[in-house]
Amino acid sequence: MRTLISLLLASVLTAASLNAVAEDPVNADPDVTIRQDGDRTIHEYRVNGFLYAVKVTPKNGKPYFLVRADGSDGQFVRSDSPDMLIPAWEIFSW
After folding, report:
1. Hey, which of 50, 56, 57, 74 would disulfide with 63, CB 3.0 to 4.6 Å?
2. Is 57 helix (H, G, I), strand (E, B) or coil?
3. Smallest Cα–Cα separation from 76: which of 45, 54, 48, 47?
4. What are the start-end ranges of the E strands in the chain?
């Protein structure tokens, strides 16, 4: 009986430690990268490496947001005028 209780306790402790290692918490806080591009400031918002929004603050003008048109491709639209697609054509490549 004592061996059975010892084995049961060991298996419970092993399962608990494996469960603690297997759980990877998802980071809900966005990573914000701020960079200067000429006369404007660009804030890139990412969650788990996925770029989902860009805030552009021009030197003279109102800041605006670019958000993904859908979740799969790199098409971004302005959040204040969602019908306007930002072109993503490849003009020339090597």
Report:
1. 57
2. strand
3. 54
4. 31-37, 40-47, 50-58, 64-68, 76-78, 81-85
- Tokens at 27, concatenated: 């980071």
What is the chain's pLDDT, residue by residue, as a tens digit (94 residues)?
A: 556 565 555 666 676 665 544 455 666 778 899 999 899 999 999 888 888 889 999 999 899 998 887 766 677 777 776 565 556 677 878 8
> What proportions of the chain, in percent to the nearest 5, are helix, strand and coil?
20, 40, 40
Structure tokens, 23: 């759980």
CA distances in angstroms from 38 to 41, 59, 81, 84, listed in the order given: 8, 9, 24, 24
Indicate the SS3 state at residue 11: helix
Beta bridge partners of 66: 54, 78
d(CA 44, CA 8): 51
**The whole model's pTM is what?**
0.55
